[in-house]
Amino acid sequence: MDTKQLRCAELLESVHAAFAADLPADRQLRNVLELVLQEYGGVVGSIHRLDQLANLLRLEAEIGIPPMLLEKVSVIPIGKGMAGLAAERRAPVQVCNLQTDASGVAKPSARETGVEGSITVPIMLDGELLGTLGIAKPAEHEFTEEETNCLMRVGEEIGKRFRMRELGG
């Protein structure tokens, strides 16, 4: 196992521990988000859960999102912005520099976060979309395949927690 794989395994172990803690579900999610941001040097992060009836993403946890943007990101239509696109495509969406991106992937208001390198991965479990996990760094960054795969695995663990909550666990 190389260093990156080991770090991912350690992160996943920490995620398991965070979910095992005797805390309310919202605090567990925030703790998981903190772990992910620490691992990747991120300063802004969000976890959205899919509301299947409304076909919208609803904010479950966030760190570092400016107050003036919270209302805009609390509910996201599928297909809009990075989270909505990651959900629609069921694939990671990333931007090397959010401040200069002209691709239209990120909404213009996303620049108000002041971050640059950003990625959102779908939270998938058994082929089913359950939400999205997004993080952003203060500097330009192209997330590697290994980093992206690890974030997808973290997303799967979040998906397991979402599924347990649906089943009353």
Task: Characterize the structure shown.
With 169 residues, this protein is α+β, with helices and mostly antiparallel strands. It has one domain (3-166): Beta-Lactamase (2-Layer Sandwich). It contains five helices and six strands, in the order ααββαβαβββα. Strands 3-2-1-6-5-4 form a six-stranded antiparallel beta sheet. A hairpin with a 4-residue loop joins strand 1 (44-51) and strand 2 (56-63). The mean pLDDT is 89.
Give keywords:
169 residues; six-stranded antiparallel β-sheet; Beta-Lactamase; alpha+beta; single chain
Briefly say what this structure is:
Helices cover 43% and strands 23% of the residues.
- Write the CATH homologous superfamily: GAF domain
Q: How many E strands?
A: 6
Question: What's the end-to-end separation, in Å?
Answer: 34 Å
For the record, the count of structural domains works out to 1
Radius of gyration: 15 Å
Average predicted confidence as pLDDT: 89
Topology diagram in text:
Layout: H1 3-20, H2 25-40, E1 44-51, E2 56-63, H3 67-74, E3 75-77, H4 81-89, E4 93-95, E5 118-125, E6 128-136, H5 145-166
Antiparallel strand pairs: 1-2, 1-6, 2-3, 4-5, 5-6
